[in-house]
Structure to design on (381 residues):
């Protein structure tokens, strides 16, 4: 008997068109599954990004054939020719999502179509092929169904999903690759803030930028992260948790952290975040928070925010809360903001009230503890 089967876990949980694509995934189960006791141990003590589930979802692309070979296979090393284009010219993009276990045992994810659409936008900027939204969601579902036992159930834990796409063609010429791979891997992850939410300190960098006008800042592109590593380690050496970058054109306006968007709460209750000018990554968490804040009757303002205004606002009390947001940490309170010429405490240095309320509201929706009134959740398994 062949070990290759069609996906045994196909069902009718997702819209029909996506279920049809899930059923196109060929599942080749690993011949060395992690023993249940070892898996339980790994899930109970996850170290983010170091432990992966037994399988990975994969789709290949060839310029002449399009997207082919939808499959779920054993998680493991990729064999790459030393001339593989991504190793030289960094044609690579990624996404980050979570699969959440709900109390009834079902597994859900949050607004995956937004991640799929963003991957397609990133692909456009990096001259990679667009993967259709339904293929993206189906790949996540196909993997989560095969590895459903890897979804942690402890509070605030999840199965982190990392979809990514790279130029796999072995060719040193500088042009868009004719061969591309798309994969989804999954890493069980525990609560981001073990032992309770703690405010972070942020260094506002006026020497380096992560993005510039017309650059790659709005793409979820690995190179943006590479560019943020030096400023991040210099800030860490000064004792700060994270770096906030200013706009590359004028070094004046707040943009975002290396991997999180930023928000301010004002003394009149309004909620402000830097507007998307093309060099800021459009976070799914950011857009969800704008919605939740507006639902609460808060005025929400997307605009260019000068750093000088923030420093003055922190001193005068006009700025009462600051937080960063992204899929991994959800909402992270900012307790201290400093740069070359200032060092400010945000509020009393403790997590802000609206910051924590929005964090609770969003995680309640994601974990199925609150009604999904915006239709954001998609059941995967
Ligand atoms: C991924 C990312 C974010 C957060 O996006 P989410 O969709 O909310 O996870 C913010 N900034 C950058 C630079 C990112 O790469």
């Amino acid at each position: 008997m062949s070990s290759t089967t069609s996906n045994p876990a196909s069902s009718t949980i997702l819209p029909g068109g996506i279920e049809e694509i899930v059923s196109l995934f060929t599942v080749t189960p690993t011949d060395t599954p992690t023993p249940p006791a070892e898996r339980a141990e790994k899930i109970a003590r996850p170290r983010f990004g170091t432990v992966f589930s037994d399988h990975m979802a994969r789709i290949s692309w060839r310029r002449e054939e399009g997207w082919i070979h939808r499959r779920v296979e054993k998680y493991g090393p990729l064999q790459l020719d030393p001339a593989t284009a991504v190793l030289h010219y960094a044609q690579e993009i990624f996404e980050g999502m979570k699969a959440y276990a709900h109390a009834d045992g079902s597994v859900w994810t949050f607004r995956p179509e937004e991640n799929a659409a963003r991957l397609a936008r990133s692909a456009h900027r990096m001259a990679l092929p667009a993967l259709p939204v339904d293929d993206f969601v189906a790949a996540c579902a196909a993997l989560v169904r095969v590895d459903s036992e890897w979804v942690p159930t402890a509070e605030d834990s999840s199965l982190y999903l990392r979809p990514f796409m790279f130029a796999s063609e072995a060719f040193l010429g500088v042009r868009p690759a004719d061969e591309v791979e798309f994969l989804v891997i999954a890493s069980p992850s525990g609560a981001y803030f073990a032992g309770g939410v703690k405010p972070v300190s942020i260094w506002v960098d006026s020497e380096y930028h992560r993005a510039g006008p017309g650059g790659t800042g709005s793409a979820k592109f690995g190179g943006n992260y590479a560019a943020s590593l030096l400023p991040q380690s210099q800030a860490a050496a000064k004792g700060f948790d994270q770096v906030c970058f200013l706009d590359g054109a004028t070094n004046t306006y707040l943009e975002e952290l290396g991997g999180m968007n930023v928000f301010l709460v004002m003394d009149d209750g309004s909620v402000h975040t830097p507007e998307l000018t093309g060099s800021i990554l459009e976070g799914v968490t950011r857009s969800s928070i704008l919605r939740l804040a507006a639902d609460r009757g808060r005025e929400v303002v997307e605009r260019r925010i000068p750093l000088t205004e923030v420093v003055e606002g922190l001193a005068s009390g006009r700025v009462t809360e600051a937080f960063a947001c992204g899929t991994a940490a959800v909402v992270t309170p900012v307790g201290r903001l400093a740069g070359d010429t200032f060092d400010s405490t945000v509020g009393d240095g403790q997590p802000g009230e609206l910051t924590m309320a929005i964090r609770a509201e969003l995680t309640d929706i994601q974990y199925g503890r609150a009604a999904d009134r915006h239709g954001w959740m998609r059941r995967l398994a």
